[in-house]
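QA checklist item 7 of 12: single-chain prediction sanity check.
[x] sequence parsed
[x] length recorded as 262
[x] structure emitted
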Amino acid sequence: KNNLRMEMPRANSATVATWSELPRAEGYLKLIKGIGKNRRLYFRLSFTNFGCFEGDTGKFVAAVTLAGIAQVRSLNATRFEVEMPGGFGFSQDKKLLLEASSSLSASRWVSALTSPSSAPVGLLMEGYLRKIKPLTVGLSHRRWFVLTRSQFEYYEVEGGALIAGAPTTVITRVSAHGNAGFLIQCSAPVTRSGHDQFVLIAERPAVRERWLTALFQAVPRAFSHQAEPAGGPASACKRVSGALGEEWVSTRERILSVHGDL
């Protein structure tokens, strides 16, 4: 077992995580509570909170401030435990037993929870997307994508080997594509095979909206080709339904008000 203690004061865990907070890490984890009670939830670690939602862009479930985390302990290749003396969620659990999809994912989460410097610098969003293979009809690969203010990269799996990527400065155009997809065009090769564009498919339209908003934060000029890209961050008065509600109004003005000067 590997015990990793947090050098920070203890605090009350009562808090609310929001989608406007920039992440240090995010993704799905299984909350282990016993046979028939386990839940797959979407966890987000920001620079102030560790919280979970019912899914990516889903309803808020619970959160704890980082000051409320006393210890993170690796139990085996895929499971780790987070200890919070102040409790977590409605049931006020003092410990969370979490299971990642792989040992690479678990290692990434433990590192992120115990070492702030392990997160990619300027991280805006990360997660799985379906990458449509160029020059094919419908053939795709599920890859882990990471967007920072300076880089857009994709990996074999979460926490896995880097496949390819490029600086965000080469992104020239971003637009919605189909129901839950989006197209990214670049001025230089960005794929392993040397292509200069991606067609990427998100889990659902609301998740695509998050990606478009994050891309707008990184490269707002890539959206200047159209005043209101359908489903994109510049669409006037566009709202994502569900838990995002009034907080997530996808306009340039709203993004600027939340994140400041781009």
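[x] summary fact logged: Residues 4-13, 227-262 have pLDDT under 50 and may be disordered.
[ ] second reviewer sign-off
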